[in-house]
Amino acid sequence: MNRATLESAREADREARRAAACDFDRPIALSAGAGTGKTGTLASRAVAWCLGPGWERSERSLGPANDPSGSGAVAARTLERVVAVTFTERAAVEMAERVASAFAKIRAGEEVEFLPPGALVVPNAELPRRAASLLASLDRLAVGTIHAFCRRLLATYPLEAGLHPAFEVDAEGTLTRKIAEELVAERLRLAYGDPGDDDWVALASLGKGPDRVAGALASLAASAVPPEVLAEDPLSPERVRETADRLAERVARVHRVLAPHFSGGPWGNMKKAMAAYEGLEALRRELALVRSAGDLAELATTDSAGTLREVLDKWRKREFTQTEGKRLDAEADLPESCEELLSALSHFARLDPALFAPARRVLASLLAETVRRMRARGVQTFSGLLAGARDLLARHPQVLARVRGGIDQLLVDEFQDTDPIQCEVFGRIALEGPRDERPGLFVVGDPKQSIFGWRSADLAAYEAFVRRLEDEGGCRHELVVNFRSAPPILEEVERTLRPLLVERAGVQAPFQVLVPAPQNEGKSGFHDGDRRPVEHWVSWDPGEGGGPRTGHDRAREIEAAAVASDLALLHAAGVEWKRAAILVRTTGVLETYLEPLRAAGIPYVVERDRNFYRRREVIDAASLVRAIVDPNDHVALVSLLRSPVVGTPDAALLPLWGRGFPGLASRLAGPDPDLLAQLDRIVSEARREVPRTLPGLSRLAGWERSLTAALRSLAELRRSFAADPVDIFVGKVRALFLSEETQAARFLGRYRLANLRRFFRRLLAGMVSGDGGPQGALRELREAVAEARAEEEGSPGDETIDAVRVLTIHKAKGLTFDHVYVVGLHGEIRGDRDGDSTEAVPLGGNAARGGQGAPGGEELPPGRQDGA
Questions:
Q1: Residue 613: its pLDDT value, please?
Q2: Handedness of CA 229, 234, 239, 243 (dihedral sign)
Q3: Strand pairing of 142-145 and 82-86?
Q4: Cβ(439)–Cβ(404) under 8 Å?
Q5: 746, 745, 748, 743: which is closest to 594 by C-alpha?
Q6: Where would I find the beta strands (DSSP E) of 699-830?
Q7: 3-state secondary structure of 452
Q8: Three-state DSSP string of 339-358
Q9: Coil, helix or strand for 150?
Q10: Cis bond leading into 266, ω under 30°?
Q11: Does the global pTM surpass 0.85?
Q12: CA distance readout (Å), 9 to 5, 308, 474, 515
């Protein structure tokens, strides 16, 4: 980039920052590339508004009589009429901290680095007073996630929204699942009785029993799928015919591109391409005869269709043989047309009408009742919050008017990751109604970073919203000056990504060049010996002649060992562990990369891991509670004995069990001297049978004393469970077995401790207020551990801990590290589908279709056809 182009880009960037902080007369959409300081830009708008136009508007509205203190009421009103919506709670905290820091600096007469020149058009003498008042009332500023915003909205107007006034959000989905399971259990007698229900029987014969039906039902309810959409049959002859016609259009588009190149030979090494072309012509003829969903499925799974899909997959990536390249490389429309047809054929290859049809009918009969029970019990899901807020604003104009009238500025972060429902909520509030009643709207995002399509984020919806914003008199700006990275990193990003980010409406935004901030222009990035700012590692075992000879799994092992070694060298050179991060594409490969870190003694943190119920400390704590509450749970007893808090060697289990240890332990209902004496004798006899030369036994020296002490604690806790209030019981569990103290002393003890604290909080809350009382809480705990339910681990709440961060690429958005290892790029991500179409049913309408193989799902962009 030449100097003139560089300065022009920087000048446009300065104008964008000025507009963000000063232009409140029209809606603004800001495209902010990575590292361009979008959080600071959002904060600058909030600060400039509150100190200037927002403050003055509040003064006019309140008048002197309503603000006897001269500033307190004005500050409160100004702040509470600013609503900032962020993508994560962490981003909300960061923005609130930025705003608070700015007010504090202005109060002290200091400069705020992210405020552009001229942003504060307020007399200098007035600024500190206003800043001090705003800082004192900062709790009135509404900064939170879109779900928090929608929850506040529904909680304010529950009756209008048709909700229980005291509704609760089912964050883990356990309540929704429980309701679904209850309903399925009630229907079983009729479903499998005499004469029974043919659809239920059909599903059972295909291996989809009550558990799978309940799981699909809970998934639909959690996703807030309206029950009425299941009434429409996507496999009806009319719908199938419409789908066949759409598929024929895609076939015709590819055919038009290819026909001129296949009019004659010689074919040479284009035999497979010719077979694909002939399959394309056969597909055109056969589509005209399609009458049923089975016909579509059969067409998509023939051998010729398989060959066609193989060739289309290569051509969409412009992978041609030499002969193909000479004929087809110049066809600009070929990749897109191949991708559209490939996605449709792959979609219908998964269609199973024999499974799909009865699944839809069964779930249609259950979903409405599930939703009714959820409303009656005050259960709401995250998706339900969004859909409920949208419907509330759409159906109650008076509520919409009040919401709109209570907001002066609406700021939305990470807007590229919004979905159509969220766009509708923001559009109704800020882009509809009388112009003089609309709040100011400021949305910021980066279309290139739209990576949450699996969570319904929709780039097409983003683009449509921005066009609508412009039609309503708004404007768009871009931030392109990067403050985070040295020029060599920005140059490498452009070199590697620019050829890949080819613009495609609704699917892929074009590449946006980022320019270095002036203060970074001369920086060369990290250099240390052979290290460079950006390195590309190749992981393989050399075969004969030095070529690659490695599968994906072995390549990951080599890569993981190399990363651990490199981290150790960096740390030895003075780099703190916390300044490094390992980014993985999927959590399924985490263990491969963690094992070398453990072996090397490198501390690490798996950021926001959802393996809470898979963690060893949680499983051990759950076993302890189960062994107390259920004396006959011998599996839990074994787990307790083997846990670190007791430390019984495996070699002692056989002699213990051979002497009747579990039966006596089951009879231990409280401190019983005679029974404890019998158990002590058994332990002593078992100790003599354990070989003293057993490898590793020296690390468990004195295990028999630990076991006898544990038995006495177990006896006291069983007595406490029967006699004491639950809070005292849980307190004794923590005090007598010292699980937290034991785990805190182990590797990554602070994180183990955070998990155990969360575990005991959950246990106490469940025993006090959960369905079924203490036994119900125990049952829920047993199921959660058995199913290894996905839930985020506890956090020690200390971001300064010196440990390498290990996280997925998705979760790394917005975070900054000095050294980043992006691993596993040689592999291929495959979905976790199990082929169960009861888990994905048609949702009706092009914007909501997408059941597995459902007609209509092929209309979604590639990568979105499986979302139900």
A1: 59
A2: positive
A3: parallel
A4: yes
A5: 748
A6: 804-808, 819-822
A7: coil
A8: HHHHHHHHHHHCCCHHHHHH
A9: helix
A10: yes
A11: no
A12: 6, 46, 21, 8
Query: Checking DSSP bridges between strand 515-516 and strand 481-482, what pairing results, if any?
Result: parallel
* Residue 103, pLDDT score: 94
pLDDT of residue 847: 27
Q: In the block, which residue shows the tokens 């604290």?
A: 757
User: Residue 575 corresponds to which amino acid?
Assistant: V
- pLDDT band at residue 770 using 50, 70 and 90 as cut-offs: low
Among 381, 279, 281, 823, which residue's Cα sits nearest to residue 584? 823
Write phi, then psi, for 583 (nearest 5 degrees): -105, 125
Tokens standing for residue 339: 């991708």
* Residue of 351, 357, 261, 243 whose CA lies nearest to 301: 351
pLDDT in tens, 373-423: 999 999 999 999 999 999 999 999 999 999 999 999 999 998 887 888 999
Task: Give the number of other CB atoms < 10 A from CB of residue 463.
Answer: 15
- Both tokens of 372, joined, read 């009714």
Helices first, then strands: H and E counts in the chain:
35, 14
Q: Which among 386, 496, 499, 503 is positioned nearest to 447, based on CA atoms?
A: 503
Residue with tokens 């296949």: 262
377-to-165, 384, 541 alpha-carbon distances in Å: 10, 14, 59
Q: How far is CA 534 from CA 343, 491, 524, in A?
A: 35, 10, 11
Give the rounded distance of the alpha carbon of 648 from its chain centre: 40
pLDDT at 623: 86
Report d(CA 188, CA 673) in Å as an integer.
50
CA distance 170 to 380: 6
- Among the listed residues 710, 686, 827, 839, the one whose alpha carbon sits nearest the alpha carbon of residue 356: 839
pLDDT 10s digits, 188-233: 888 888 788 899 998 888 888 888 899 899 999 998 888 888 888 8
Instruction: Report whether the peptide linkage leading into residue 195 is cis, meaning its omega lies within 30 degrees of zero.
Output: yes
For residue 818, report the phi and psi dihedrals to the nearest 5 degrees.
Answer: -80, -35
C-beta separation of 740 from 706 below 8 A: no
Question: Structure tokens of 472?
Answer: 């309503």
Residue partners of 105: CB distance under 8 A and separation at least 6: 111, 112
pLDDT tens-digit map of 47-78:
999 999 999 999 998 876 665 555 789 999 99
